[in-house]
From TrEMBL:
Keywords: Membrane, Transmembrane, Transmembrane helix. Its main location: membrane. It is a multi-pass membrane protein. The keyword Transmembrane helix applies. This is Vacuolar protein sorting-associated protein 55. The chain crosses the membrane at residues 7-29, 74-95, 102-122. The lineage of its organism: Eukaryota, Fungi, Dikarya, Ascomycota, Pezizomycotina. One of its GO terms (biological process) is late endosome to vacuole transport via multivesicular body sorting pathway. Belongs to the OB-RGRP/VPS55 family.
């Protein structure tokens, strides 16, 4: 599937909405703790990327490095769940309001979904 200009525009629009929701969840209630979600969703794809690079798949050994890739996916899952759990925990402890929690979670999921979609659309095909 060829990713063109329309794909880039659509992904940037969704990313902008995600950042807008996270920033508004902080600014509307004058409490900037929900901005912690941005860091977790930006860092979340890094273990997946690093472990895929470190696995070092060869032509001769198809199953080599499977544990490293699984560990990267596990760390990515921990960070994504943490990105949802942080606003829920802050709302439960009454440090932020519940609407701010909802906006922060939805915005964070949009940010992470955009990062994953960008990786899927612009992944290079490997030719041997």
């Amino acid at each position: 599937m060829a990713a063109g200009l329309k794909t880039i525009i659509a992904l940037s629009f969704v990313l902008a909405i995600g950042f807008l929701l996270v920033i508004l969840s902080s600014a509307l209630w004058k409490n900037y703790l929900p901005l912690l979600v941005v860091a977790t969703y930006i860092i979340a794809p890094l273990p997946n990327w690093a472990c895929a690079r470190a696995s070092g798949n060869d032509d001769f050994m198809d199953g080599a490095g499977g544990g490293v890739v699984d560990f990267g996916r596990f760390l990515t899952g921990v960070l994504v769940v943490g990105g949802v759990a942080i606003p829920a925990l802050l709302a439960h402890c009454a440090l932020i309001q519940y609407p701010a929690m909802a906006m922060s979670i939805v915005g964070g999921l949009l940010i992470y979904g955009t990062i994953i979609s960008f990786g899927m659309f612009f992944q290079e095909e490997q030719e041997f």
